Amino acid sequence: MAHDHDQGHKHDQDQGHKHDHGHQHDHGHQHGHTDLDWAEMGPMLESQAELFAPLYERALGWLAQEVTAPGLIVDAGSGPGVVSCLFAETFPAARIVAVDGSAPLLERARARAERQGVGDRFSTIAGELPEVLDELDYPADLLWASRSLHHLGDQRAALAAFAARLAPGGTLALVEGGLPRRFLPRDIGIGRPGLQARFDALEAEWFTRMRHELPGHVAETENWPGLLAAVGLKPARTHSFLLDLPAPVSDRARAYVAASLTHMRERIPDGFEAEDLATLDRLLDPDDEASVHRRPDLFVLEAHTVHTAVRAV
Length: 313
Prior knowledge:
The chain has a 7-stranded mixed sheet with strand order 3-2-1-4-5-7-6, with helices on both faces. The longest helix is centred in the middle third of the chain and has 18 residues, at 195-212. α1 (38-51) crosses α4 (103-115), α1 crosses α8 (251-267) and α2 crosses α3. The protein has one domain (38-311): Rossmann fold, CATH 3.40.50. α4 links the parallel β2 (95-100) and β3. The protein is built from 9 helices and 7 strands. By secondary structure, it is α/β, with parallel strands linked by helices. Helix content is 35%, strand content 20%.
């Protein structure tokens, strides 16, 4: 988005990633953002993805209802491998391949797999999506693409490439969409109420510019089940998963909020409302009692949507 991405946000920061390409969220990796230092961002992306682990665990459990015994699972846009390793835990007989454009993030993924005792069935491939998928030894029974597709200029062509790497009867799980995240009440006691809603508009504008600036950009209606059908797959299910971390939050959650708002601060255009800018600066000031580092009403509420589709047998 990671980043990103990412999650989160490469993420999101999604990876969200990345983390936040405004959606860094996937704590995976934001493709095409070659100016980012992924080795430096790795610890943050990994921590953010771990924060989202409850959401991912529910999503993987939901996937396991229809994907019962996959031999090969591919995490396309894996970032530091938090979700890849959750796949290894959810499907103990599967081989996992983490695919990402960042070699430093893949090093973190391999180290994580070793620490968790799944290194013997865990491998990585470094390269840019979707072309790098040609390096797979055999087709995937499950291909997971979490907020990595929207970093590719021609999303329909990329989906077709994803579909081509599926085994007959294989499932593509696409994570795109959801709901804007929320960290704070509407009225936070400083500045004009509704700050995050105004940030949503900035994020939407930033995301549109990001898409238009991608190499080979093709405008596409974001009807994900429709696009999955258009590349020859049979849409199966769609479900949204919520990350609900109520106040008081952990230090890790505070760090995620601070990183997300810092990312927003760096992207604010000239001419932005001075009062909102001053409010944001207070929210980011560790010495201010009203900051996200200190305030007791901070929370994290975020939804990610998973769409699945199946290749004909």
